[in-house]
Amino acid sequence: MHAYRNHTCADLNTAHVGDTVRLAGWVHRVRDHGGVLFIDLRDHYGITQLIADSDSPAFAALEKVRSEWVISIDGTVKARDASLVNAKIPTGGIEVYVREMRILGEAGDLPLPVFGEPDYPEETRLTYRFLDLRREGLHNNIMLRSNVVRSIRNRMWDIGFNEFQTPIITASSPEGARDFLVPSRLHPGKFYALPQAPQQFKQLIMVSGFDKYFQIAPCFRDEDPRADRSPTDFYQLDVEMSFVEQQDVFNAVQPVIQGVFEEFGQGKKVDTDWPLIAYKDSLLWYGSDKPDLRNPIKMQVVSEHFAGSGFAIFAKLLENEGTQIRAIPAPTGGSRKFCDRMNAFAQQQGLPGMGYILWRKGENGETEAAGPLAKNIGPERTEAIRVQLGLGEGDAAFFLGGKPEQFEAVAGRARNEIGRELGLTETDTFRFAWIVDFPMYEKDDEGKIDFSHNPFSMPQGGMEALQGDPLDVLGYQYDLACNGYELVSGAIRNHKPEIMFKAFELAGYPASEVEKRFGGMVKAFKYGAPPHGGCAAGIDRIVMLLADTANIREVIMFPMNQRAEDLMMNAPSDPTNEQLRELRLRVVPKD
């Protein structure tokens, strides 16, 4: 017999009744029924109930075990009484009568319980992550992640992609976030960078003649943490293809992502119709470039109905260039109580409030508009708004005005809140959309032109498009949104050196800077580069959606906390003086 076990804690069933078995695992729970001990023994695979009474040679030793001790037992499989069968677990029809027990590892007092799913402070959970991972919910999430990665990898191989690994220590590259720098001991004063993404390398793989590449790639970004983003490192499905247009990338990626959601979506509906939505339309309709299409509400511009109207705030605002009024339809939201609640929501978001109109049955039996806005603009305008929005009796609409970039985000959050409050948002569906036609450039806070997305993207229209206003240039850039999250981001690449130099020049990078920072790629493009494109899908975020959690740390085995600290391993930590001397570095004290 094996030294520790000949079965796992999920193996045994009524077919094993009468067998002598050896099991090993953690003591999950102990129940003392006065001379009879019941112990749930847990391993990676499941739980088996052990039983011992005073006739068992192991009884005295078993009385001493506590939660999370690691033990190995020998015993005989017995059938449970019919009234005691636990149909919820595979081993629920049997129990093991223990005759011998060996202690493999004792456990001290636990800083957090493993049995059950108590809501413990995250700092405690992360400090003792090795205990936290023993809990069923988190353990299942990590196994889900493992199975998702395996499925993705198999699907990519099956459609003709090859897996290659790219360097982890490399040069700094502008990917939209801060680099983690690594000092060089052999080259004092110089630094490597951990890759924000394998962007340049995967493009070089295409230039090298490999047609279809993928990798489950670690990426490193020194970012401020959010609930749906890891502050230090994350994994992505990295993809690149040669001789492709935008639609070719969509056609390759959709079956993989869709298949994974169908396989692991726990029975939720997976939408197969993935619309293409222009970036500007997404902001207009949904207030976000990662819309949640489970919510059917679409915002609309209603400026014409308020221009020159009796509602002075909006009428005056529309006299300024670049302003508009948008409506958020709220089907079934036509109660004063609901409208007041949404107005309070807007105030919590930092706005003075949201104007609203609600429609109800009038004394004459016809639909009439109510609310302060309706009184100010009159029945003709309110009726035109109702018709445009397709609303009727019992419905409402909310209104926001100003320059779109100043209120779009709040409008998007209000749309989401209205959809949830009114029960309009589906809860058992994954809905996807490709967001396309991103602007290549934007103005920063100082009015300087900079890249708004991936700097290596091909501008739509090529060199000719770069001769006019940079803010009018669209890129072959695209994101995949699912249920309000960005899952995939990608682009058709700029593979022509002359177009690349011009694109960077518009963002303030002279040719010398481009040569210095991206010399390897520029050099490669001068020796015959194929048209190519690809994307990257966030593994952590995919698993987060499949696990139905809004916290990405619930699907990462050893995550950092919100301050980018590893509480279990005590990182970041202070370097030793010897390390600093070797690297010729000095730490400057904080002011």
Q: Biggest sheet, strands in spatial order?
A: 6-9-10-24-23-22-19-12
Number of strands: 24
Mean pLDDT: 94
Name the overall outline.
globular
Strand % is 15-25%
Helix content: 25-40%
Tell me which oligomeric state these chains represent.
Answer: single chain
Structural class by secondary-structure content: alpha+beta
Q: How would you characterize the largest beta sheet?
A: 8 strands, mixed
| Gap from first CA to last CA | 65 Å
Uncertain runs: none
Radius of gyration over C-alpha positions, nearest whole angstrom: 30 Å
Number of helices: 17
What is the topological layout?
Layout: E1 20-32, E2 36-42, E3 47-53, H1 59-62, E4 70-79, E5 94-105, H2 122-127, H3 129-132, H4 136-158, E6 162-163, E7 180-183, E8 191-194, H5 199-207, E9 212-220, E10 233-242, H6 246-264, E11 269-270, E12 276-278, H7 279-286, E13 300-301, H8 303-306, H9 312-317, E14 324-330, H10 336-348, E15 355-361, E16 367-370, H11 372-389, E17 396-402, H12 404-421, E18 429-430, E19 432-436, E20 441-443, E21 449-451, H13 462-465, E22 477-482, E23 485-492, H14 497-506, H15 511-525, E24 532-538, H16 539-546, H17 577-583
Parallel strand pairs: 3-5, 6-9, 11-18, 12-19
Antiparallel strand pairs: 1-2, 1-4, 2-3, 4-5, 7-8, 9-10, 10-24, 13-14, 14-17, 15-16, 15-17, 19-22, 20-21, 22-23, 23-24
Helix pairs in contact: 4-6, 4-16, 5-15, 14-15
